[in-house]
Amino acid sequence: MFNSISFCIIWFCLPSVLIDQQNHVRYFRHGNKLKYNNLFKGNGIKMSSIIEVWDLAKTYRTGRGKHRRVVEALKGIDLKIEKGEFFGLLGPNGAGKTTLIQCLTTLLLPTRGKGSVCGYDILREPQKVRASIGCMLTGERSIYWKLTGEENLDYFGALYHMPRSQRRSRIEELKDMLDMQEFLDRRVETYSSGQKMKVAFAKALIADPPVLVLDEPTITLDVHASRELRAITKGINRNGTTVLYTTHLMFEAEELCDRVAIIDDGVIKSLGTVDELKDTMGSGEDRIIRIEVPVVPDSALPRIEELEGITRCIVKSAMDNGGERELLLTCHRPKDVLPAVIKILADSGAAIKAVEVEPITLETVFIRLTGRTLEESTREGS
Amino acid sequence: MKPEAVFAAFRVKLKQSTRYRGYWISDIVLTFFMAFLPILIGRGAGGTGIFAQLTGTTNYPGYMLLGACAFMVMDAPIWQMGNWFRREQQIGTLQSIYLAPQGPMEALTGIGLFTLFRSCIIAGIPLCTGFLWFHLELSGGVILALAFLLVGFIPVCGLSLMIGALILRLKETGAILNMTQMAFGLLMGMWCQVTLFPVAIRAISYCIPMTWINSGVRASIMDISYLLGPWQDFLVLLIFCVVMPLAGFLIFSVTERSVKRREGVNLF
Predict the structure, then answer these.
(1) What is the pTM of this model?
(2) What is the pLDDT along chain B (268 residues), one digit of tens a residue?
């Protein structure tokens, strides 16, 4: 109601009327440390995490008549992201990660459940939620191509109620941070994809928000630009900004994220640090230990095979290694069996040249949780 | 709502408009066509006698010129603001606007401001040219006519918000805007006095602010009769000024919420 009245008043009295509903969410930078007025005060929610989601569900109804279909994009998600955390959301197309982000950024209303960002309820205080978040969701399509990069940043800064002087200094800061000096005064339509993505990224950072939400930010970038953007994002996170990062790329999640949630079919399948997720794999899956030895003594093999935990033991000739022998052991827990295997080989007089435990990657974890590779899932989704 | 954000949206729209070649020229030329074609055709057909019966004045060019310019001023917000949602949706920036703390309201108010500025130019130039070309004389209250136009702009913005809501829901602009353009042109009495309409159509006609604006502008400049009277007509317009923006905002909010519940604002 208040908004509707202000809409009328501003039409009656433009431009002299000053209506300030948003003073409480204006940002002020002091050096490198972000301070914002009352952002965590008096909001009615007891805040322990910067992003919290309780039983969040979203159902879409598509089609009509016989083709009517109900799609459960999110099936009751619970999630907590701590302040300053770099949080990765990993999942194939159609897993529900964009829906989750759209609900958190108030672009979409959930069917059920609650959520909060910086202590603000996503349903009751959407304006304050939006003021706390910097978003890069649709990449290069999120900016005006007929304007210059600088004009874009200035405009979106104004929409975040930043004063003109503050906008200018922030644009200068971002210019240096993202190395945009050479092109920011040109129209966006003349930019390369990488340059457009940089401006879109700068737009997300313009108000220096405490939470940064990036939806597959490197998807259209080349290798060099992706690496650069990842390094900058990590730097921003080190300065205290919480980052929620969605990606298809396992190595990005491994490289950047403090914690990762693997989401598929609207459900969080697994959540934890990358190491924790790998550890959960370690207990249930077969792992391969590769031991390079010139000669495997005959007496050693039966003793190794008898060891508890060893499920398979193969000796093979490694052709790429001058015909030297390689002992391939399959076991559940390499850490438990490896000391005993090395002792047996040493006692038998075998000269061990190298030991390698096949690493568990996030990809392995993903396959185990979803039953398919991320590449397959992405292809199915698209 | 912060004026700085509103003016930033105004500046952005102005800059964008100057970066499309022919944007302003074609808009001004369109108003010339709208106003001059009926005048020249009317003169060619020699329908002045019947015209006086229909409109209450023999000043056929002046009547049509004012009607066309009032139409262009009133039509502009419907196109600019209604179409704005669809355009932003298509180019992908609507989501960015919705991510700003205040949502689309500040940007939309800026677009309204730009529309007012644009209307003054695209209606002002043909109006001045027309008066010189057809040797028309201004009589009566020019200031009152301007007041009708400027005050009338407010309820039209409210109406545009309703149409914007419809476009946001249906994700279609061409048919809706063309239809509303034709309908409002007829209903506001661009070509003849609304008093000549059948009762049902006349009733609908009285329910849209453009009718009162058009009638007020013509009557105050050309000394033809008002619908009710000068101050009564102005009072009706003031009531529209309160009702229409509120109704527009309410309808828009409900539609926006429904769209956010269904598929989100950026899906097109």
Answers:
(1) 0.75
(2) 788 888 888 888 888 888 887 778 887 777 777 667 666 666 555 555 666 666 677 777 777 788 888 888 888 888 888 788 888 888 888 888 999 888 888 888 898 889 888 888 888 887 788 778 777 666 667 788 888 888 888 898 888 888 888 888 887 777 778 888 888 888 888 777 788 788 888 899 999 898 999 888 888 887 788 888 888 999 999 999 999 999 999 999 999 888 888 877 766 5
Q: Do B109 and A11 touch (CB under 8 A)?
A: yes
Confirm or reject contact between B247 and chain A (CB < 8 A). Answer: no
* Chain A CA closest to residue B93: A142
- Bin A312: left if φ > 0, else alpha if -120 < ψ < 50, else beta: beta
Q: Which of A127, A137, A151 has its CB closest to that of B102? A: A127
Tell me if residue B195 falls in helix, strand or coil: helix
Residues 147-166 of A with CB under 8 A from B: 147, 151, 154-156, 158-161, 163-164
B257 to chain A, minimum CA–CA distance in Å? 8
ipTM of the complex: 0.80
The answer, for B81 touching chain A at a CB cutoff of 8 Å, is: no
Q: For the residues of B8-75, what is the DSSP string, one character each?
A: HHHHHHHHHHHTSTTHHHHHHHHHHHHHHHHHHHHHHHT-HHHHHHHHS-S-HHHHHHHHHHHHHHHH
Closest CA to B87 of B101, B108, B114: B108
* Ramachandran angles phi, psi of B160, nearest 5°: -65, -35
Say if CB B134 and CB B144 are below 8 A apart.
no
Q: Record the tokens describing residue A116, joined without a space.
A: 């909060």
Residue A135's SS3 state is strand
> CB contact, 8 Å: A37 with chain B?
no
Q: What string of DSSP letters covers A56-110?
A: EEEEEEES-GGG-EEEEEEEEEEEEE-TT-EEEEE--TTSSHHHHHHHHTTSS--
Closest-CA residue of A relative to B9 is A155
Q: Using CA atoms, how far apart are residues A53 and A39, in angstroms rounded to an integer?
A: 19
Apex A9 CA angle, A5 and A15, nearest 5: 145
Task: Write out the two tokens for B261.
Answer: 């519940």
